[in-house]
Design a protein that fits this description.
By secondary structure, this protein is α+β, with helices and mostly antiparallel strands. Helices cover 28% and strands 48% of the residues.
């Protein structure tokens, strides 16, 4: 009987220690999740996503999509792209293409943002076309 009780107590202590180790090891992830949820609550949003922006298979920037009120896209470019104005369109999951504005790149750098009416979850790609320059694309999902 004493051996059974000792075994049970040992199992409970081992389980408690294991739970404590896991709790401590995941503290950073829980803090990040809490901060992310708080940010979305303040900004009346649901989620944030990001994608790499490519031109001819070369990484040239990033596209960030935010689902909230309002929803928006934000783009950063930092590469050796040709300076100029690029028409920006999004392609929805059902294949519709919608022009949403234009972005200027100067000496390979630029940033641009716009609010959109389409739900971010319905945006499949964001495309950038310059006159006589390489097309840039980012796949959001």
């Amino acid at each position: 009987m004493r051996a059974a009780i000792a075994l049970a107590v040992s199992a409970v202590v081992a389980a408690a220690l294991s739970a404590g180790v896991v709790w401590q090891a995941t503290a950073g992830d829980r803090g990040l999740a809490r901060d992310y949820r708080n940010t979305l609550t303040v900004a009346d949003g649901r989620y944030l996503t990001a994608a790499v922006l490519y031109a001819s298979h070369e990484r040239v920037g990033h596209v960030f999509g935010y689902q909230g009120s309002p929803s928006w896209l934000f783009v950063t470019v930092d590469s050796r792209l040709e300076s100029g104005t690029y028409d920006v369109s999004l392609v929805t999951r059902d294949g519709h293409q919608v022009r949403i504005g234009s972005m200027t790149i100067t000496n390979g750098r630029g940033s641009w943002g716009v609010t959109i009416v389409q739900p971010i979850a319905q945006v499949a790609r964001v495309m950038f076309k310059g006159h006589g320059t390489a097309e840039m694309t980012a796949k959001l999902h």
